[in-house]
Amino acid sequence: MRATFIGLAGSLVPLALTQRLDKPPLETGLDYLQKGLLEYLGPVKSSYKKWTPGWIPSDCKTMTVNANLSVAHVETFSVQYEDVGTSVNVAFSEISNQCPNDPWLLCRHIDSPDPLENMIDLFGRVPVRARQWVRHIVNLPDPTNFTSAYNWAGNIAMFESINRDLTLFIHETGHSLDLLGAYPDNPLSTSRHWHAQYAKDSHVPDPYSQSNIYEDLAQNTVVAAYDLNVPGGIGVVEPKWRDVLHQFDTIEVEQRKAGGFAGERGSVHEAFEQ
């Protein structure tokens, strides 16, 4: 189950953009894409270093407090992936050499059921050029054992154990790409171009895509990632792929137009609070 908090800088989100979509779902979920994504978006070598106890990035602190949890129980790790310094010109495909070298920061509550290494591995599988648009990862427990996630200001919060669900990380990264300016149509989800292409399709990928236009775009980001990385593309596992073609193809085209875009994570030297 996913939950996403959406904010557009300097403006309120128009009500129509958060209304439920009426196109029927193509499938009951995107779990059927998981195997191919894990196989062809392989692990990336990484290393991590634990911060001195008592220090936490300000965004991690805000998200922890908002979850009614104590920041004293959150540990912060600097995570360095070996593919940083190389990148993809298109967010989910070709390699180039333009990514910043700053590590990512992962904030993890000591009671989180997902092992630290699992979170590092899964996030590292998100292609680096897309990964560059994510600021921090926050992993927190949920008192009701409910698995969920959201993206706030480019930070991804994961609650409970996500059971090696790579589609969840790609989905939340899709919100960063959409709302933080990765695409020429910025934000893509609110653009006339996206709405025109959406109107051409008869379906959305799954029931969660029906939540609103933002979630539909993020779910189509998962479809696009599969189509770009798994040999044979989405048609290998989805015979009705043409019913959502204009949506996921628009994301692929926007990524190609973006070319060698650089991430907007911000420096690790943002305000820290003790």
Automatic annotation (TrEMBL):
For this UniProt record, the keywords arranged alphabetically read as follows:
Signal
Signal peptide bounds: 1-18
UniProt xrefs under SUPFAM superfamilies: Metalloproteases ('zincins'), catalytic domain
Q: Which domain of life is it from?
A: Eukaryota
| Protein name stated in the entry | Conidiation-specific protein 13
Q: What organism, scientifically named, is this protein from?
A: Letharia lupina
What is the organism lineage in this UniProt record?
A: Eukaryota, Fungi, Dikarya, Ascomycota, Pezizomycotina
